[in-house]
## 1
Amino acid sequence: MTTHAAPPEILQSDRLSSRTRSILQARSTAPRTPTARTLSPTAYDTLTALVPALLPQDELLSPAEVIDLPHAIDRALTGPRDGWRFAELPSDAYAWEAALLTIAEHTQNQFGASPHALSPDQLGLLLDHIAAGQIGSETPDRLTAFQMQRWSSDFRADVIEAFLAHPNAQQALGISAYLNGGDDTLTGFHNVTPDTAETFEPSPTTPLTATQPEEHSS
Amino acid sequence: MKTYPVTETADVVIIGSGAGGAPLAARLAQAGKRVIILEAGPHFKAADYTPDEIEARELYWLNERLSGGVNPQAFGGNNSGTGVGGSLLHYGAFMPRPDPRDMMLHTETGMSVDWPFQYDELLPYIEKVEAFIGVSGPKHYPWDPTRHYHYAPPPANSAALKMREGCDALGIRHADGPTALITNTIDQPHFGTREACVNCGACHQGCRNGAKSTPDNTWLPLAIAHGAEIRADCVVHTLETDQRGHITGVVYRHKGRDIRQNCDQLVLSAGAVETARLLLHNGLANRSGQVGENYMTHISTQAWGVFDEDLRPNRGYPSLTITEDMMRPKDADFAGGYLIQSLGMMPVTWGSLVARGTTRRGPELARTLAQYNRSAGLGIHGDCMPNPNNRVVLSDEKDALGIPKPLITHSYGPNELAMHAHASKLLTSLWQAAGAKDIRILDRAAHMIGTARMGTNADQAVVSPYGQSFDIPNLWISDHSTFPSATAANPALAIMALSLRTADAMLRQ
């Protein structure tokens, strides 16, 4: 992530309030330091291996647009959270540290390697097994399989929320949600029915939006 | 705004400025009572709200809760707010009336419990609330031709139109749902201009132009005009009593200082978790042992699908189309029923549901997220029964003020599971009929109800049918804590109607 894309066009829209614009700008220019603020180096390293296995951003964004999601998640762990946590888990920052170290130990025991040495398929299966409550540890400062299952839901939510909250993702997916009005007038949307996008609304730039996934459910 | 010295004993102190506290504050102030409202959260300026869903969490109650049980509930959005105006600052403004049958479900089915009075008793208050705050709805409401809404509905968005298609195909009636927003600009007495809804879609992130009917643009200006004082950023932690056990006042934390405010009457309007937590922490009003018990939610199963068109689910009022045809389905294997509404949604909120409601990962997850603009949803609100396993208790952990954090246990019982299964099947059929692909069912619960039930028997209920504590005569509860059962309707309307009813009862004493 050494290249930098041009700022997403939606940041220039006169439909953004100045407060919303500065929120999005701050998010899009978050300093990209390699060090973690909340998590330990080992936990952070594990996080950077897991995030692409859950959400391969290269399917949706150009290389220059890829968002540093581990960085965003690590920073958010020390800020205000969402007001609740699973009763079976310790506080968020502690739970994330313990969960990621549990995973690092698991891959060391199972594969004799750090998570980064695993293939995308192996990492994907690892995530499935965590979600199914099959991976955990009974040692102190680690999470049990049941706790890991609960944490898996938090992990998925934080990654996906950090992605969709970023202007690069909103631009690529053609999302107009935050373009609902500038400072003087809440303009909202005149057109609200299918196939009536207005000129100020972004069009998706990722080819995936044009295709339909296979029919199935999960 | 009039202010009172803290050394003066108020006639009434109200804890919480949302749907439970605000209507009552206005009524009591209008009757000449010296009213002080203590609000834990800040005073937001509507013009400063942002649709950015992460930052808009400032409207949520962020003091941490522990969520347990088989169906642990996500708090914050859709149930727990903060700030002057309470949870209605971020509510979705969907405002159906309770079904009269839901208040007598035990008589009807032998299950759940009856409310201690019937719908007819609540109806005049419901009509007063709707007329005062501004509720839009259709000219003809198929399930209740007698009712009248004061504003025309906002335009149907993509999800609302898709739900109409599905309902038409399956022979299910549908209508524009009642929504607590105004569709023409008005001058709200004691507040000022409230503009017509502009279909911005960010109701849950705070309404920037006053179209959404909230306490801070309706009840609270009325209360202030009649001499009520609102104190923001005041977190009550201690309820004080005299030798008789009557309330003498409260102590709250404001900017790091503890301040005592004495009062003749105290009203708890802090919501089903915080009201119970305050009573449990202070060891008050619990001779029945019912404080914190019978925590309930709404079964809020959703179905999402992907359509061929560009739907842009962020645009327009999110949940306009309603059907009440499933309030008593013919093929039901459960008691009670559920409402169905169409669902648009903001992207991060939608993504969070994809995260927690599916196990998709890798390229499949990327494809799912890429379909945001083609997505539309359906959601239900289903009745939920009191269950002795579901409750709010004090945990072993303390918050920054030294008060134990609440632990909420929530699991569906057999009736809730049967309703969820019924709805999952029907929502899938509706979306198939409308042409949706990649249909996903999300198992979730919303809202919070119960924990200080009202009733006629002091051994089995915390408060009387008017919200007065059986144990402490100058303590009242005015919020959804008192609901004996959930009913299928979103709770805000009933909370406000009950609030006016409790105010009348207080004035009679």
## 2
Amino acid sequence: MSPMPELLMGILLVIANLVLFLALAPFFDGIVRRVMARVQSRQGPPLAQSYYDLLKLLGKENIDSTGILPFRLAPLVAFASMLCVIAILPVAGRATALTPYADAISLVYLLTLGGVAVLLGAFASKNIYALIGASREMTTMIMVEPILFMILMMGVLKTGSLDLTAVIYGTPSAGFGWPGVVMIVVSLFALQAFVARQPFDIAEAEQELLGGPFIEYSGPNYALFKYYMMLKQMFYAYLPIAMFVPLIHSGYFIADLAVQMLLTALVFLLIGLLSATHPRYRIDQAIRYFAVLFVIALCAIGAAVIF
Amino acid sequence: MRKELEAKLIARLRDDVVCVEKTDERTIFVDVKRAGFREATQIICGVGARYLCSVGYDNIDRDGTLAMVHTFALDDRNQFVCCRTAAPVDDPVIESITPDLPSAGWSEREVTDLLGLRFAGHPKPKKLVLADDWPEGIYPLRKDVPHDLVPQGAEDVAYQLDEAPPGTKIVPVGPFHPSLHEPEHFAVYVDGETIKGCDYRGFMTHRGIEKLCQTQVSYNEVPFIAERICGICGSVHATAFSQAVESAAGLVIPRRAEFIRTLMLEIERIHSNLLWLGVAGHLIGFDTVFMQAWRVREQIMWLCERLTGNRKTYGMILVGGVRRDITPEIAQDILTVVKKIEEELMVIYRAVEKDTSIHKRTKGVGTITRQQAIDWNLIGPVARARGVDIDARRDHPYAAYDEVKFEVPVLDSCDVWATLVVRVVETFEAIKIIRQCLDKMPGGEIFVEMKDKIPAQRHAITVVEAPRGESVHYVITGEENRPERWRVRAPTFTNLQAVPLMLLDEQFADFPIVMGSIDPCFSCTDRVAVVDLQTGNASSVSKAELDAMSRKHQERVKK
């Protein structure tokens, strides 16, 4: 193929990625809500409820309770950083036009930037609940981001490359060996923390902090944060599927993608079940939990280096 | 006991003792002069009495004094001791007993607010009940103040919170906060996430029920108002009031009515404990427990609707008996429903019992020692979870509790988990009691009319074990077929005072569940909105329409 159509294809893939994530993330959120409802003997909201919620919030008034710039910028930064992550993500093994300009480290950077934007908004809102929520969010980030990094590191070690497509899709499932199996377990146990759901919805903690970092946000700004959270959850639910479940290589990109999205939906089913069967942990309990995961992940990386 | 107490009092106080009398089998009244009041309460505590509450009343018309009663219970002998004194209205100061009995703090502050009686040596003589902008010098419970007085409000008057310990930040919890179910304000002083103290400002929806019942209605109407003190333990208050009046009047009610009261109280306990279990689940962020417990609870509300016409606020208790009889069909209905609840609750309990993540959030949380629980006079499941073996149903039997057998669960792990277990076990015990009631209930009348006029100036005290602990009602009979003074002490009044102690050095994340573990009493009225599921149109219902709908539904239920 000549370079021009490839570039065009790459650009199309960037757009396709964004459309896919933006379109599916609220649906997956709907799945979690429905699963939780069914475990709780409730009928639950319609699967499209999260789209309605976003639309409703977008139509409401933005209340700027502080009048300072960081407060207004934070939701935009968070949302934009997540869009960047999606734009560079090689979905179903296909690199987009932007993937070559990024690597595993910039992926982690961009994800962290989203988290930092949440903190920024929380600190700017000068609300004591937001501050407590932000300090919890910060602690969680410090503990959880290294685990994410080590999951990606596994791919880096196996392929010897930082290129995203290689890191995520480059290792055949047999190639991971037992450290890879340990890492799968770690990523399952860290799943609820990545998606910030029970037992790790500590920063938002409705019953104590009334939404924590987001307490002062309303209307479109809050919609952006909500959308950001949904996109982030979809990314984290998709990541273990992409890394540890081999593509079916049917020859059709669409079929590969459909299977992976189906598997992602199953991960959301799992998220819903886990959320419905756990109380919220306290931050001190969560830290101990993360610390154990961290050590295990580190051992797995060590083992992958040695063997 | 009366003689023993009299001898001890006279030995120490000599001329300060006016009289020690026993008005009925279980009530001893001690009258002392003002100077010996505090010492008299110390002597009473010394014989093993447990402080209940204090009652102030206006005696200005009679002898120009404001009177004060401290009430105590002797749990091992089924007796109550009421220690009375009076202070002239122009020098209304009495020595405080709060330094000896910390849980008397609120009772005394309440009397100061409502009657203008002051307590020398009170460690925290701040406003408690009245609004911050209530004018000085107007004491609502005095007889010269009309019940509908609306004084001029004032701007810029705010409650002064206690000073925060150095290095702490104040987190306001309330007046509106999802973990509280009624308006009340906690200022929680936190260092990082650790709670270093808290101040409480509540009584924001003080409705003046006592004043209303002392001035506007008659004995027979009060039970229905009493029932509305609490949205959950209504029958408890109605029963307690009725028993106090019956005791003052010397009225003996039919045995069948006593059994039906017992039955209603236990149905209410099942309802309340299931409700609490759900709320507790919600407060630790475990909504599945919340939803499942309330699903089980729903059946008891349907049952009560068939039984009394209301899902809650049953209106069953009258002075002199109960309003409706239990027919054999409804008895069968009750048995079927409680059996189903027993099975379904067992499923939830088994799941909760083994859930390590619930243990993580409840074990070792809200810990206070048994001695602290005794010092603060904690009551109900909160006390029983701290190894304090008290239960008014067993210690001061009323209604038909002397004829039924039940266990009183007492645990000694002293934390929130223990209160959960105590409440679940008590629900199973309540089901046992209901079965025994239906089994042993004698035939006969369910109501006896009060024929003679109740003499004025009789004092009576009763306790009824609510799901949250004992409710104390103190009644002084009055002239116009209504109580002259009626004091209600709900269990939360006592338990809430010890919450700052339970919170100390806990994590802020545990605030909701520690607070929730005492099951703070709330009552609420809600607007009704009807949503048409097909069209999605929402419409509100006016009061008249709602009445009509309720009546129509009632007709259907009767058929």
